[in-house]
Amino acid sequence: MTPTLHRPHPYDQDAGTHASTLNTLRAAVLGANDGIISTAGLVMGVAGATTNTAALATAGIAGLVSGALSMAVGEYVSVSAQRDSERALLAKEQRELDTMPEEELEELARLLRGKGLSERVAQEAARELTEHDALGAHADIELRLDPDDLTSPTAAAVSSLFAFALGALIPLLAMVLTPPATRVAVTVVAVLVALFLTGFLSARAGNAPVARAIVRNVVGGILAMGITFAIGTLVGTQIG
Question: For the CA atoms of 149, 155, 160, 162, what is the dihedral angle to 10 degrees?
């Protein structure tokens, strides 16, 4: 009796979608995290040099827009390269299936034996998988890809753009909407709370240790804000 194989394509169509959803969530959380830290550092640096609200707003908005666009372009280029590589691998696999099907059948059986199946069961499973969807079987077991769920450059770019912008709004609004006497303190608190949340979410999305991710996030944010505020204060004092 041939055992049921757990594979995202085509028998378990939700598996690939689940992995894709996790990757999208992770990218969005990291994009928001970048927006929080980079914009917080920027507005804190300007706040160290001046208390002018218009100057702070201008710098923060410029940082938000340029950072979001940079993230989107960078993500699009990176994911496009990844998608091109995935397509090239699938095209190569399809050529091999067309030109040497017996060798590919034996390769699939060998891969299944490597997963713990016996010789007889591996051969039978390889034949059944090849008859059902040869490319899908090789893509999953050999290449770890789902031909129907390749990475999307556009989705990655849009997700990164909006995630960065939403993250950047937290320090920007905290800085420009609060009175000059308390704006730095309010911004620090808002940023640390936001970094706590993004650290928690990124760890959960990646199945990583939560405490370590939160501490890394918060410490990085404190350093970014502290260093840029000190530099802004120094520059502002020297110019003034």
Answer: -140
